[in-house]
Amino acid sequence: MDFYKWFFLAEGREIEGLFSFAHIFSVTITLLVFFIVAIILANKFKEQPKKQNIVLAVAAILIVVVEFAKLLYLGLVPADGETAWETIRGNLPLYLCDMQIFIIPLAAFTRGKFREWCLDFVAIWGLLMGFFGNYFAGNIYGTYPVISFFAVISLLNHSISAFAALFILVSGLNKMKKLNIPFTIGILVVYMTVALIVDYSFRPGKEANYMFFFRGDGTPFGLFLDMVQGNLIAYQIIIYLLQCGYMVGFYFAYYGIKKLVDIHNAKEAMFFDPKTNKYPYPMDTDKHYLHVKKDNHINIDEHYPYVDNSFGFRFKVFWVRVLLTLIVFPLCYVRLGLKIKGKENLKKNKEILKKGVVTCSNHVHMWDYLAIMCAAQPRKTNIVAWAPNIRGENGAMMRMVGAIPIPEDNMRASLAFFASIKKLLNSGGWLHIYPEGSMWEYYSPIRPFKKGASYFAVENDKPLLPMAFSYRKPSWIRRKIFHQIACFTLTIGEPLYANKELSKTEQELDLTIRAHDAVCELARIHAKDNIYEPIYKNSKRVDYYTDEYGIGYKGSW
């Protein structure tokens, strides 16, 4: 009974008020939760109509249940001096923010063109209702405490509306065709007309004011009532025109934004070659131009823990991963201007990839492995690395992010290295290899590949997943203020498999050629137009735009 008086009746409780900290905080947190869930589910269930329908159906059921709970309470506890029916009739779901109580279920449970119109309708009104219905509900938060029955009902109703709209927009369920405009407006007109008829069924002066047809109630609609000097018919026509006009405006704003996005995407889709002469690209395509300044003389032999599974190492890796996720990965997106495409290929092939995979890409920046790690999340990745780098000043951190050094001039060490890689892949590990052999920053053509990635894929019967870095022209701010040469796009391809009708040597050669062709295409270079052969054969740099390199070079970061 005490809870009933506290929550339902709010007896003796302080009303925090509209725009109080409690009001803003509770609404913001609730909307954030609903928005995050909507975005996650929309991305998770893209191209999965059945699951999309389930999400909409759940939203429809919830919003109806919330409204039914309100009406049930009002029927059980009518207002003073009113019968249960009189109280319910004055609180029917015919207000502006109540439209979604009818339209979300129609969008979830109907089919064909009518469903299409309803989906557009929910998308058009849901976010508006979620924002204004939560933040500007003076009739609720000026009357009831933030945590009370009617405040919570209002919060859930408007938040579910916003959730459904955002889910529809992100998942692309809305069509927004011009031919839909008269029909979605028709849905609004029918709803408004029903509300007006019900309002006129009340005694004059006792109207429920559904859809603000009789007064503004503190909204901007009141200005129009004053403008027509209280002429109710003229005012009601204006209400019709304003709300229908909003829908038309939304459609054309959507078309305008879509056109701008299409123009932006078209620009980004254009091939961009930085053609920089800043970096001292060597004559041999597999050679390094970075000089390791330190040598800590680590002995990389047959006893070296190539894949370290000790508790102490894994404990340190855990905290490094936390740091990477919270700070470094977001910074990577900003630093590189990074965009990742093709993640649906990881999702589509997850059952295959979780059994172990070898990935390969061009090597074009000091931070590009971090981009690979961003794309792979939440999977943990490993990468084969040049031994001097592991002995160098960054060696300890490289080990923490999964680097496995390639031993040099030691047969027993090589055998231990190969055994560690085999164990890693057969336990479902992710191994990344740069088959070009070295890093050439901002270099556009795909250099010849060595066979290492294909060897590990063939030898361990794992797929080879090609990825590619391509470039976008940076914005004026990035070019002029931060002197950025290019922004990066990482594109993930489809897994490649060895042709088992060939001998192992032929499988490696064939898979290397196909991987090279795939990386070219992902980098928006037609394989036949790439200036390098696919297989490394003491290949030399092709000077296709200049023969002067390393001008002003002072190092990489």
Word description of this protein:
By secondary structure, the chain is an alpha/beta fold. The chain starts with a helix and ends in a 35-residue tail after the last helix. The chain is 53% helix and 6% strand. The chain has 3 domains: 1-175, no CATH class; 177-269, no CATH class; 311-529, Glycerol-3-phosphate (1)-acyltransferase. Helix 3 runs antiparallel to helix 5 (99-109), helix 6 (112-135) packs across helix 9 and helix 12 (311-336) packs across helix 15 (368-376). The protein is elongated and about 95 Å long.
Domain count, please report it: 3
What percentage of amino acids are in beta strands? 5-15%
Q: Biggest sheet: strands, sense, closure?
A: 7 strands, mixed
Distance between the termini: 66 Å
What is the arithmetic mean of pLDDT? 94
Order of helices and strands: HHHHHHHHHHHHEHHEHEHHEHEHEHEH
CATH superfamily of the largest domain: Glycerol-3-phosphate (1)-acyltransferase
What is the radius of gyration?
31 Å
Q: Low-confidence runs (pLDDT<50, min 5 residues)?
A: none
Please name the CATH topology of the largest domain. Answer: Glycerol-3-phosphate (1)-acyltransferase
Share of helix, binned:
40-55%
- Compute the number of helices: 21
> What's the CATH class of the largest domain, please?
Alpha Beta
Question: What is the CATH architecture annotation of the largest domain?
Answer: 3-Layer(aba) Sandwich
Specify the structural class: alpha/beta
- Strands, total number: 7
Main-sheet strand order equals: 1-7-6-2-5-3-4
